[in-house]
Every structure is written in structure tokens, then in C-alpha cells.
Design brief:
7-stranded antiparallel beta sheet; mainly beta; 9 strands; about 170 residues
Amino acid sequence: GHIVDQGEGYGENIFTGDDNYRIDNEKAVRSSMLMDFSEATTLLLSADYSKSEGSMFARRPAPGTLPLIPIPPPPDEWDVAQDFQNVNRFEDWGVSARLDHDLGFGLLKSITAYRETENFSGQDADSTQVTVANVKLNQDDWQFSQELHLSSSPEEPVFWIVGAYYFNAQSKYD
């Protein structure tokens, strides 16, 4: 597993007083389990989960440019002065199963996987204290895949393999 709590951000939004470039919390865990059903059959199950929240995507005008509203940014490169606190939230999880079976004349392998992702991003696109362009974006994704293949045994003089792959995914924004 993995857990992060950064504490203070690298900079400050001097307009709102909030920290920016900060990880509020980040968690991740991954696990797998291998099961031997026989000398010919094994199953590997895997799962993972991660979640992150913070304000890591604060925006500043590029050096030498002016923002949409010509208000110069704060002098410290980590600080911003924005009416909207940038935020990002990300959550992701997935599971998979891999079945291997020795048929004697060849090897059969099946790999099945599923994954879901949710992502929210809110940004002050004009990078100023004036409310002009605050953007909020939700993105949700999921995907499913199935792979099957049959191959010759490694001891055979000629190696062959035949297989099929299926993939289905959806993504939406709002």
C-alpha cells in the first residue's frame, strides 16, 4: 500500500488563503493471489485501488505573457492569486484474473480485466482574481477486456499461437 498526506502545499493562493500545489491525501493499494489448482492449472487474481485529492494543478501565466485580465501574478513562482481554488480528485480501481492451463498438446491462457476511473478537475482557467473562466470537468471511464489464446507447448519444435481479444470501454464527460 501507499499513503501520503503532504501537509502544507508548495505555494499559496493569496486571494483565498488556501494552499496550492498540495496533495491533501493519496492512497493506493494493490494485491494479488496465485492459486495452484493442479500441476496443470493456475489462477492469478489481482486487484488495485488508488485515490488522490489535492490542488496540484494551479495555473500561472507563462513568464513574459499576460493573463486574460492583465493583472500580474504574485512574485513567488509557487503562489497564485485566483478567485477559484484549483482542485483535482482521482479515484481508480481494477481487477483481473489470469487462468493458465496445460492441455498436454498446448497451453490455454485466459486473461480477464475490468477497470473504473473517476476524475474531477476544477481550474481557474483565466488565472486571476476576477471570475471569468472557471472550469469544472467530471470524467468517468470504465473498460472490460478478455483475452484467450492457445499455444503449442514450449517443447514442440515449431511454436504456434492462436488467440482472440475483446475490448469494450466507455468514457463520459460532464
